[in-house]
Amino acid sequence: MRPPDTRTREFSSSRVLPPEFFSRPAVELAPELLGVLLVRQTDSGITSGRIVETEAYPGPEDPASHAALRIGRTRRNDPLFGPPGTAYVHCNYGVHWCFNVVAARSGKPEGVLVRAVEPVAGIDLMRERRGREELTNGPGRLGQAFALGPDLNGHPLDRPPIWLEEGDPVPTHDRVSTTRIGIRRAAERPWRWYDGRSKWVSRR
DNA sequence: ATACCGATGGACT
DNA sequence: GTCCATCGGTATA
Predict the structure, then answer these.
(1) How many structural domains comprise chain A?
(2) Most exposed residue of A19, A89, A144, A175, measured as fewest CB within 10 angstroms of its CB?
(3) Do residues A193 and A53 lie in contact, with contact meaning Cβ atoms separated by under 8 Å?
(4) From the alpha carbon of A139, which nucleotide's C1' atom is closest?
């Protein structure tokens, strides 16, 4: 029996990021999300983690976006068109649930994919859900460790059962910018960011 | 009805 | 490092 996780906290509105924080282009928001705390509450308990890796998918002009011009608005990508500061959760390869933060403004389908977090609270619960030690270094792993699914689509990120809190900011010189991972189209654009100090980044 | 394609992860060398 | 199964969403018929 290990000691209780002392960093587990109840929801507190004083720490959440306000909707205005997300009202900017995805390419600007993505690096600012590094260091932010992602908190998830379910009947099983609370899990939280510090965001260490993000990717921007800035709308219709981006051929890699789920809302690229050639695709348009569909039932799948509809949450991306919603208000900033809400969730877009999509399924990848039919098995992995990936979490995005909606950016910009309503009607503009911009989003930031959260690719990795550093586990902070509820680590045993993450282990239970994952069944292995690689907990949150990758969008699919993170989705499973935090029990993220399509039920969270459109959910505002300033209240339970999932919210974002201000964290220790990542110094500018530790924000590493690279190309996005796992895409074919527009693969050369430098729209991935990670915390260069973190061991929880999915890949260098 | 059904074919196709992944914003990946896990098993393996 | 390499290989490939995975199945939900979408488009097409």
Answers:
(1) 1
(2) A19
(3) yes
(4) B8
| Residues A80, A64: Cα–Cα separation, whole Å | 14
The residue range of the domain holding A144 is: 19-195
pTM over 0.90: yes
Residue A70 Cβ under 7 A from any strand C atom: no
Q: Please check whether residue A2 lies inside any domain of the structure.
A: no
What is the CB neighbour count within 10 angstroms for residue A17? 20
CATH code at position A153: 3.10.300.10
Tokens representing A129?
């859900």
pLDDT digits (tens, 9 = 90+) for A15-30: 999 999 999 999 999 9
Residue A14 in domain: no
Q: Is the CB of A55 under 7 A from strand B?
A: yes
- Asked if the Cβ of residue A70 lies within 7 A of any atom of strand B, the reply is no
Determine if strand C comes within 7 Å of the CB of A149: no
